[in-house]
Specification:
- Helix 3 (about 85-90) crosses helix 14 (about 385-400).
- The termini are far apart.
- By secondary structure, the chain is α/β, with parallel strands linked by helices.
- It has a domain at about 65-275 and about 390-400: Rossmann fold, CATH 3.40.50.150.
- The longest helix is centred in the N-terminal third of the chain and has 22 residues, at about 5-25.
- It is built from 14 helices and ten strands.
Amino acid sequence: MPQGSLAFSEENTLRFAAQSDLLQSVGCNGEVSNALSGSGLTIDDLIYRNSRTAEWHGRTPPRLSSLEKIARGIPFVSLFTGAGGMDLGFEAVGFSHLAAVENNEMFCNTLRLNRPGWKVFGPPSHAGDISDFGKITDNLSAHVEMPFEGVFVGGPPCQPFSIAANQRFSKTGGNFKRVGFHHRKNGNHLFNFIRLIKAFRPVVFVIENVAGLRDIDKGQQLAAAVQELEKIGYLVAHADIHDAADYGVPQRRQRMFVVGARRSGAFVLPNKQAHIGSGSVLSDIPGATAINHETRNHKAGSVLRYSRLDYGQRDQLGRVDRLDPTKPSKTVIAGGTKGGGRSHLHPEIPRTLTVRECARLQTFPDGYEFTGPIARQFTQVGNAVPPVMAAAIATQVAKTYF
């Protein structure tokens, strides 16, 4: 071992021992903030037993602002917009945002805050419920011609099909085993989306969802939905599952995309890229003025356990994983600081990730702000399509059909 590395190792050993003593001084149920009070330290000064023994030296995800504006103003409409991940990707490659439809008022607040120029149909000012066909068509008709010479994109609510969501349900509950299309409301939103496609006849549609949508009911319901669109002249590509890590996102995240068009063309994604490690966006800590960067006030006992984990190892009690900076992150989930799951552990700081750090793994720009309570900020980030992945889809849509 080189002399410098040996000195660094000895320094970390002493620092870790002092840190452990400090945390133990408040007891396992004491809060870390109490242990650090008066020491001049923050939680971001804490380390793992083996901090910085692995490091990412490769490329970083592309900035949305650096992407080629290949679409040159082709209009698009988004449904089930959420926090706007798909929209940002399409916008980044030159599509023109015509309208967004979203039923959650908090998500609408996020959209309006970040993109005040977008037309957002949703509460409190408009109807955003896709199941209310009459109101939605009335709202869109004022801005969208029929047939629509642009693109409809959307991800019907995915929780009924999600394995991660299913793990939160009781085995005796009605939501267990990915109830899918039997879910009274969310499971039928796919067909509400299709009804709007049939009404407005966009040149292209993109349906995004979790992988479970393709497999639930052995694919029968999805096949029926595709058949409806094929009957009115759409050529629909096979429902494919893609990993965001293959397209410039520092995160493993499987999503299903169904692309159809009333023009000829074979939709395929570009060649897969070499994966990017999570350290590419987590190696520098967001500054004190960063938005959506409030750290969780952990219990000292939790941090003591976390601090002994190796890269990629799971804390079995808290069911959280320390990320490896040289590999893509595990899937960012829609959990929060109170209930509904928790974010992963930072590669080099024994704490869970903040909303901003999760947003970085999702490739949202640092200036994009999520509104509402912290738990719901996590929900918005975790439910979103990574904008860089959406941009890859959007680029191929423009190249193939326009």
